[in-house]
Amino acid sequence: MTVKDSSQTGEVRAAGSGSWSGKNWSGKAWSGRFAKGSDPQAERFGASIGFDIRLLPYDIEGSQAHVRALQRAGVLSAQEAETLLDGLAQVYRDLSAERVGAPETAWELDPADEDVHMLVERLLAARVGEVGKKLHTGRSRNDQVALDTRLYVRDVLGQVAAEIRNLLATLLELAERHADWLMPGFTHLQPAQPVLLSHHLLAYGEMFWRDAQRLAECYGRTNVLPLGAAALAGTAYPIDRAALAAELGFAAPSENSLDAVSDRDFVLDFAYAAAMIMMHLSRLAEELVLWSSPAFAFVEIDDAYATGSSIMPQKKNPDTAELVRGKTGRVLGHLTGLLTMMKGLPLAYNKDLQEDKEALFDTADTVLASLRVFTPMLATLRFDRARLAAAAGEGFSTATEVADYLARRGVPFREAHRVTGQIVRHCLEHGCGLADLTLEEWRRFSPAFGPDILAAIQPEAAVAARNVYGGTA
Ligand code: ARG
To answer: In testing the pocket of ligand 1, which one of 115, 151, 232 has its CB within 8 Å of the most ligand atoms?
Structure first.
């Protein structure tokens, strides 16, 4: 989609007048009070049409509901309402469904139209004539854009929630397929204690389950109707806001008109929920990057989600995981940007609020694209059972079992810990592992050791012992 730069085509600057007259300025909806048009740079700077065209379907839906509310309030006749409803449907068709939400489609947008709301109104008047100018009765772009944005966020929340459901189902399936596979658990990225691969995968399941809950909560706060707040003080027409809310599927109309037109908490709620999802994806991505490195060799990423090197023929790089990790940065950035944009705004509407859109759209695009590529990548992972099992026993990962063994036989835990540390040091000095020690050697460290210590230090035994509610067993 391209935005026409009228400053370059010379359409805006009035020849000889020395003032900015603007191609359409006298046709602008608010031109009455103005003696001259906008500076073309200022016009371009202020225009949101280049990106808020994505709100078109929501703008049409909201305007049609507004028309019906005006008719019910007796402000529009049945005839006028029908003309406007048809006209809006035609405008939508004219702008063509395929162009909506497809920023790559070449399509000329004129900054003179300012934003999607003005564009629709202009095209409507062009289609249906004078009556088109009645559409904006009792409404402001302030409650209109709040409505459009809520309808958009509602839609996106449904899409993201569906992707999270897919991701959860995939994690669950993956965990079931690897239910009893051993792997090393880490703290500080150092071998800590053996765990089950399924337990590790389902730790991410918990994170994404909380994300699903966050999205649902966000939906509740988004699903409130701002229309009827008008510019800031409420509309002066007898619009039944409860009926309007019901018609548009909102749980209720907003309680305070000032808040309704200046509240973007729902955008921030979504930005936060999206940032959390990306942060969770990024952590898992980081583990896949590590695990697919030959140094770990725990997992192989399917060729479909990896790339090669232009110079090193042996390379297989986990690009998809890396890029999801990388894209997390911009979503976190949008959250910070939105919070910063909001923090100094007096009530009610301020133009600053227009800055919510690009951050919101990019957040939604990025989280959806990331989820849509991450889930199939997960589904096609190939874990190496032997390598994971071997690693599960490396690095003295069952040393805690040794200390627990002694503690169960009456040795105070601190003493048991000290003795076990000495055993580990002994092994390090002799270049062996715990499993290489003979019973006689064990007994040299403590007479409490019996022959069953050899079974107790098996990774399987360590996992089985952790059968507390929520534990790896
Ligand atoms: N394009 C504007 C936005 O996104 C629409 C609202 C304009 N309202 C106004 N009073 N200038 O915020």
So the answer is: 115
At residue 232, what is the residue type? L
64-110 pLDDT tens trace: 999 999 999 999 999 999 999 999 999 998 886 555 555 444 456 88
Q: Tokens 């973007």 appear where?
A: 264
- When computed from its CA atoms, the radius of gyration of the chain, rounded to whole angstroms, is 31
Rounded to whole angstroms, what are the CA distances from 169 to 133, 205, 299, 379, 423?
Answer: 51, 9, 20, 10, 44
Q: What is the DSSP letter of 20?
A: B
Q: What's the DSSP call for residue 12?
A: S
The overall pTM is greater than 0.70: yes
Is 353 near ligand 1, meaning CB less than 6 Å away?
yes
Quick one: which of 133, 107, 88, 135 has its CA closest to 49?
Answer: 107
Q: Write out the catalytic residue numbers.
A: 188, 309
Distance CA 221, CA 204 (A): 26
CB-based contacts of 385, cutoff 8 Å, min separation 6: 181
Q: From the CB of 349, is ligand 1 less than 6 Å away?
A: yes
Torsion of CA 256, 260, 261, 267, to 10 degrees: 150
Mean pLDDT lowest among 10-19, 135-144, 266-275: 10-19
Q: Are 461 and 421 in contact (CB under 8 A)?
A: no
* Alpha-carbon dihedral sign for residues 156, 161, 162, 164: positive
Cα–Cα distance between 27 and 65 in angstroms, integer? 26
Compute, in angstroms, the gap from residue 115 CA to the centroid of ligand 1.
8
Q: Which two tokens stand for residue 68?
A: 């019906």
pLDDT in tens, 378-425: 999 999 999 999 999 999 999 999 999 999 999 999 999 999 999 999
- CA neighbor of 306 nearest in space, from 174, 296, 293, 295: 293
Tell me the pLDDT tens digit for each residue of 234-293.
999 999 999 999 999 999 999 999 999 999 999 999 999 999 999 999 999 999 999 999
CA 354 / ligand 1 centre spacing (Å): 6
Q: Is the peptide bond before 348 cis (omega within 30 degrees of 0)?
A: yes
Q: Which residues contact 235 (CB under 8 A, 6 or more apart)?
A: 138, 139, 228, 229
Taking CA atoms only, the protein residue closest to ligand 1 atom 3 is 354
